[in-house]
């Protein structure tokens, strides 16, 4: 049985503070996570949660993934930006042009995110988190499409995007050039299996698709840490 996207995880220097920031920006409910961490829950029970895990690793360069938040009007975009700044976010420059319609910000832990202008057709009907936008190859887009069994909704000029059959947030990869990976990613995907699933069989399936298994983060034998074809960390929660 295929893994489901359970959470997008942030390695954070101050998990509780970062969770409060994103809870208030997104309007999502705070909750205790399954392993003593803090999480925020989506308004739609079918969506993924966001987990915040303690880490003291310094941030090096831009993250390989960031959220694109959507807007239904120029006023809503301005309101989202103002709310994020009031809560401790900051404006940053990642090379965007003055004529670009999106606004680039960083959360209080330095993680980049964008507030997209109204009228973006690619992110229409996706929800407030329109996309998890990733730096990655076409190969890794194909991998995640097969891993999650989410269809490709974009595959052009080595750029790819997938989306759940139920709609919602897209996951996108921008294609080459892909910056070299430096250290452990601050954002990563956490997959989970139903209680009656065969965890080892699913790990083997992911390996057959191009993932590799590491010997780090095994914990109590429930959590398996893996790398996708671009070397990005992700975890699989096997049934307890």
UniProtKB/TrEMBL annotation:
<feature type="domain" description="VOC">
    <location>
        <begin position="125"/>
        <end position="239"/>
    </location>
</feature>
<dbReference type="InterPro" id="IPR041581">
    <property type="entry name" value="Glyoxalase_6"/>
</dbReference>
<dbReference type="InterPro" id="IPR037523">
    <property type="entry name" value="VOC_core"/>
</dbReference>
<feature type="domain" description="VOC">
    <location>
        <begin position="4"/>
        <end position="118"/>
    </location>
</feature>
<protein>
    <recommendedName>
        <fullName>VOC domain-containing protein</fullName>
    </recommendedName>
</protein>
<dbReference type="InterPro" id="IPR029068">
    <property type="entry name" value="Glyas_Bleomycin-R_OHBP_Dase"/>
</dbReference>
<dbReference type="Pfam" id="PF18029">
    <property type="entry name" value="Glyoxalase_6"/>
</dbReference>
């Amino acid at each position: 049985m295929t893994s489901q996207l359970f959470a997008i995880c942030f390695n954070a220097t101050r998990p509780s503070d970062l969770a409060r920031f994103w809870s208030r920006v997104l309007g999502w409910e705070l909750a205790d996570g399954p392993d003593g961490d803090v999480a925020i829950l989506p308004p739609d029970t079918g969506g993924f949660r966001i987990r915040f895990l303690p880490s003291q690793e310094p941030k090096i360069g831009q993250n390989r993934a960031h959220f694109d938040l959507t807007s239904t009007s120029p006023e809503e975009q301005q309101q989202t930006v103002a709310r994020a700044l009031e809560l401790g976010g900051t404006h940053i420059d990642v090379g965007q042009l003055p004529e670009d319609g999106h606004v680039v910000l960083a959360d209080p832990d330095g993680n980049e995110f964008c507030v997209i202008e109204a009228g973006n057709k690619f992110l229409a009907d996706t929800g407030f988190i329109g996309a998890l936008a990733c730096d990655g190859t076409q190969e890794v887009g194909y991998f995640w499409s097969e891993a999650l069994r989410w269809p490709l909704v974009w595959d052009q000029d080595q750029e790819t995007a997938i989306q759940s059959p139920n709609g919602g947030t897209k996951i996108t990869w921008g294609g080459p050039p892909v910056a070299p990976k430096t250290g452990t990613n601050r954002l990563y995907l956490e997959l989970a299996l139903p209680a009656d699933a065969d965890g080892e069989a699913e790990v083997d399936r992911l390996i057959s698709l191009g993932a590799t298994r590491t010997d780090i983060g095994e914990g109590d034998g429930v959590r398996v840490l893996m790398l996708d074809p671009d070397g990005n960390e992700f975890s699989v929660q096997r049934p307890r």
